[in-house]
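Troubleshooting log. The previous structure file for this entry was overwritten by mistake, so regenerating from the original sequence record. Sequence copied from the archived sheet and checked twice against the printout by T.R.
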Amino acid sequence: MTGPLDTTTARRRYITVCVLLWLPSGLAIAPLILLFTERGMTTVVITGLFAAGSLTAAALQLPAGGLSDTLGRRTVLAAAGSMNLAGLALVGLGTVPWLLGAGMSLLGAGRALSSGPAEAWYVDIVQAQSGPSTELRTGLARGGSGTYAALAVGTLLGGALPWLLGLGPDLGARLSAATSDLVLPLSVPLLLGAAVEIPFILYVLTALVEPPRPAVTLLDALRGIPATGAGALRLGGSDALVRRVFLSAGAAGSALATMELLTPGRISALTGAPDSGAVVFAVLACAGYICSSIGSHLVPLTARLAGSGERVVMVSLGASASGLLLLGTTAAFTGVGSMILGAAGYGLVYLGLGTAGPSENDLLHRRVASSGRATALSVQSFALQLAAALSGLIIGVLPSGPSPWLFGGAVLFAGALLWIHRSEPASATPAATPLPYTLSSPPSTGACDPQQDADQYAGTNGS
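Regenerated output below.
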């Protein structure tokens, strides 16, 4: 480490990493399913491709955090960028299922590796400069705003590029012919995303300076993974506030599953055509990211008005639950009024989740030492993904109409109720005390995981 970074510089670098990390994901959202279809993949194969990515991410979620705490944030983030680069290139150029499956698995591994080291790096730097009680919420919120802004821009750009290539001289057709259909117009956003990974890796390696860590081999780090996972679970069981953060992440995962599984069908029913419904939903997904970005940006103001971080989480999750319940009550009706109320509910869900995430993580980081920070974030992300998967199964057996929406709203409302009673002061669990983990400890992006949105959007439109 060449010298200590000031808080402003650390925040700026953290935001830059968030933007470069999530822009490629945004670029892939709109064209991915259509690309698979144009490559001749059936619905069953497409489902298997997404399963390969999701299962890889779930399997590596906790181990990835342990590697980040042991080997360093910068090393793991650079590895994540390398895997994302290879994965996007394989998916963009692959023409057979096994190549596409390998690409999706690499993207799943990259997602697991990248789901917390950047945030852990930022908190490490700020707390090293200003102490464990320093204010983290504003920096985390700005990182969340950058994340969702990158996803929104990427979604629009990824949907527009193939269309633009077909205008005028039809550069897309020329590109396909020149490459013997290896590069299709729908491949271009993914290949552009792969290109973005190069400056991401270079920026991570040069900008995310870290203090020296004890020399640990990769084999030693891998040996400590089982104890790391057990220690993370003990953390959630022994600290009431951390437990509430993890449970709230699960409630947010249930809400996201509800939104992303049910919204495409609802839009298609309103527009009367699946194709136009997919286009409208792509725009709506972008609007959701913008709402989450606004919510993250408003976190400091919301915290001042609410008076405490815990109250911010309660109000934010309550607002999101209200949005879901509004979507549920309007699901049985048609007409302009129900559409307006439904759109308002949709925006409210993502606005609230965008506000809740940085506040929850601010509370979490005050309870967790640097040696276990990425582990705690990994458990948080794992809780979100697990709850989303289980909720998806439940939603699948519920009758269509208001019931699935109301189920998601009820789960999220229960998550908000967890925060009615305030916890003991953070000093009751000293943040400076290392967690009871062995060699290491494991990431997440807050209560609302943007990659969860992207994956579920793609998966639902492929079915």
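The two ends are 49 Å apart (CA to CA). Archived copy saved in two places this time.
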